[in-house]
Fold:
Amino acid sequence: MKFKLLFSRLSWPVFFIAVMLQRSPVVRYLAEIELTLIPRIQHLWTLVAGAVTVGAYNTVTGESGDLRLRSGFDDTTVIVGENLRIVIEIEGDNLSPEDWRMTDPLPDGVSWFPISNATTGVIDGVPTETGSWDITVRAWAKTNMRGDEGSPVSFKIVVDPLISQQPAAQAVDLGGAATLSLAVANSEGVTFQWQKQNMGIPEIFDDLADQTGATFNLNGVTFDDVGNYRAVVTKGSIVEISDVVSLTVNSLISEQPLNQTVAWNGSPELKIVLVEPTGVTYQWQKQNSENPELFDDLPGQTGAVLELVNARSNDSGNYQVVVTKDSVMEVSLVALLTVDSTPLQIWLDAHFEDPFAIEAGEEQNNDFDNFNNLHESLFGGDPNVPDSIQFPEVSQEIINETRYAVFRFPAIAVGTESQIAPEVTDELAENNWTPIQNGLEGVIIESSPEGYLVKVPASDRQFLRLLYSSAP
Structure:
């Protein structure tokens, strides 16, 4: 009689499902409390049908008494800052587990809400951190993990960052255009702010005015734009900072001018090499000696090579070249040119328009005074103006009860003491000159800003002369 009632009220598909459910421990538990098979099967069919229609709630369903992912459900992926809700259900009529357990950690901002004696447990919240979490949920018929246990359900929660594609480093030509961009998975409610690293304080990134889109465009790039950039992405209370990327600018110059040292009267060449010299103009400049912040154009020096013939001491200095191509201008690195000059050569450059002319010779005496050019150079004289005072000035001095003849010359202005060799004689007619040195036989030689003095123990007849050398 009971079998007839069973077959009359069940279709074959439902009967087949009922038979399969007899393998579930939870169903057996329900059988022990003498529930009929028909209500369980009817409830199961309703629950499965409902699970298919409420996919928006991330419902997890399965067979009676089991916690299983429904067909087609895999790992749950959301974006940080967006709502995450997963409803886990147990199938079966009148089955309300008293004990839900989930020991795995959840993302910050997300909580687990088990409900005792209810057929659902809920994972809900707004994740505030990114990452991946492996989750396992279990349920028992009785508290303290007693009684029948349904099959656990395991799945993964993945919280993706706001930024789905990071900006990439760029290298652009001088004067070109640069584009830095990033992408977000869901741009609704997202704001952007591009920043550039502060050159003086690398720990700080400064906001760039009006750069508030997912793409940062920069036209007419200069070397001032070189640096590190990043974007701050905000959605609600979530703030995410992109990777730091570099923007580099390709120089027009492939080889910079180099420091160089040449001898006085030499012919130095400072040169520059460009990546593509077609259509390029040049202008060489020299640093202003009075205002180092300024560089003055050098007339006629408009080639890739700066050519100086017969270099003079005043050609020493810092040089640079301004390179122009179309509307783009680039200034080279500064190169130091050193002209290796003697004190005499420096003096000649200062007093002669052409230091290589005959009148600039060491033995020449253009002003017809008592001193030739070499003497004038050592003591800072002017070769074009006769000296009104005759040198040396001669006087006497008692030092430690010894009488000295004192010969006073002007202070050495350009040269060094090593260029002067004092000599004495007591018989001018015989031309018997004797070299003297400081400290020998009582001789005292003093060189100071006040003058160059030679003190020699006196005799009845005494003559002094100085031999000059142009080499230090």
In short: The longest helix spans residues 37-53. The chain has six helices and 36 strands.
